[in-house]
Design goal:
two-stranded antiparallel sheet; 109 residues; 3 helices; mainly alpha; 72% helix; single chain
Length: 109
């Protein structure tokens, strides 16, 4: 019971971390671009960190201690872990594409 609660609270923390990173590292620079800043800086690492935090956070929140995403003995992912990995990869690619489209529409190269 206590382990399940810790996992779910950890999921909430991961979601909050992902949203915070997304706000400051991705949406902040995009807002600067919309305001016409001459130079914009953003971190490519955020494109992986944000989806990973949010997707794993949702998974931990929904599954709690029952979430079986890895096989600790064999040190490999389970089918659930691979699904989460694919979702993160898709969200990373889609987020980067969307971000680049937004910058292109604003006239940034």
């Amino acid at each position: 019971m206590m382990q399940d609660l810790k996992m779910r609270l950890g999921g909430l923390l991961l979601i909050a971390l992902g949203l915070g990173l997304g706000w400051f590292m991705l949406l902040g620079p995009l807002q600067e671009a919309r305001n016409g800043a001459a130079e914009i800086h953003y971190s490519l690492k955020a494109f992986l960190a944000v989806p990973a935090c949010v997707i794993f956070g949702i998974a931990f929140l929904a599954g709690g201690a029952r979430l079986n995403y890895r096989d600790a003995e064999r040190k490999s992912l389970t089918a659930t872990g691979w699904v989460l990995f694919v979702l993160i990869a898709l969200a990373t690619a889609a987020g980067f594409w969307w971000f680049q489209q937004q910058f292109s529409a604003l006239g940034y190269a």
